[in-house]
Amino acid sequence: VYVMTTAARQPLYVRQREVLAELYQAVLQASPSVLEPAFAADWHAATSDDSHTRVVLDQIASLTDASAVHWHAELTG
Fold first, then answer.
1. Residue with the larger pLDDT of the pair 2 and 69
2. 56-70: b or e for each residue (b if 16 or more CB lie within 10 Å)?
3. Using 50, 70 and 90 to split pLDDT, how confident is the model at 9?
4. CA–CA gap between residue 41 and residue 5 (Å, rounded)
5. Rounded distance, CA 44 to CA 38, Å?
6. pLDDT in tens, 25-51
7. Cβ–Cβ contacts within 10 Å for residue 31, how many?
8. CA atoms of 29 and 27, how far apart (whole Å)
C-alpha cells in the first residue's frame, strides 16, 4: 500500500499534531471531569500516572477529526 502526500500539505499535518498535543494537555489537566463517562470510570480505576495518560489518550483516540478540533477550541479557548 502506498500513501501519497505533497509537500504543500505538511503545514496542515504540523498543525494537526499541535492541536492533538494541546488537546492532550488540556484534557489531562481537566480530567476526570471532562472525560466521557466510560473514560471517567477508567480514570477513577487507574492506579498510576501512566494509566491516567492511557485513559486520556484513549479518549482522544475515540474522537473524530471534527470533534477533536471542537473540543480543542472549547478547552484551550
1. 69
2. beebbeebeeeebee
3. confident
4. 39
5. 10
6. 999 999 999 999 999 999 999 999 999
7. 17
8. 5
Instruction: For Cα atoms 69, 32, 67, give the angle at the middle one, nearest 5 degrees.
Output: 15
Residue 1: per-residue pLDDT = 62
The mean of the pLDDT values for the chain is 94
Stated length of the chain? 77
End-to-end CA distance of the chain: 39
> Helices then strands (H, E): number in the chain?
4, 0
Arithmetic mean of pLDDT, 42-66? 98
Q: What is the DSSP string of 28-60?
A: HHHTTTTS-HHHHHHHHH--SHHHHHHHHHHHH
